[in-house]
Amino acid sequence: MEFPIKCYDVCPDCECLDCIPAEIIQELKDEGKIPAEIFTKGLAISVPLFDPSMLQKMISETLVGKPKYPVLQIFFAICKDCKRFYVREINLIWQEIQLQMAPMKDQKLPPSRFG
Asked: What residue spans define the domains of the chain?
């Protein structure tokens, strides 16, 4: 299967071009509350596609570089007119596993920000 999979550019029911999430995102960008370079494709649901119990095996099998796991991204919209939820695009990306190293014996931990 090839990604990305393009789905709908407009509402499949009423063919309206306007969607609620895009308007909210644009308002926040116009007000300077979020950076212009984020949410360029709208809102997405990201679903990691791996078994967490297999994490240690994934790490140990990676000889060079950082281990990666697949993530399914589903970009969606909600029609402004009829309020229908619809999918705009489906994509598969590979996300690096972020490893946190344990502190060394004499290494001090940074102070907690949570009390």
From this structure: 5-96
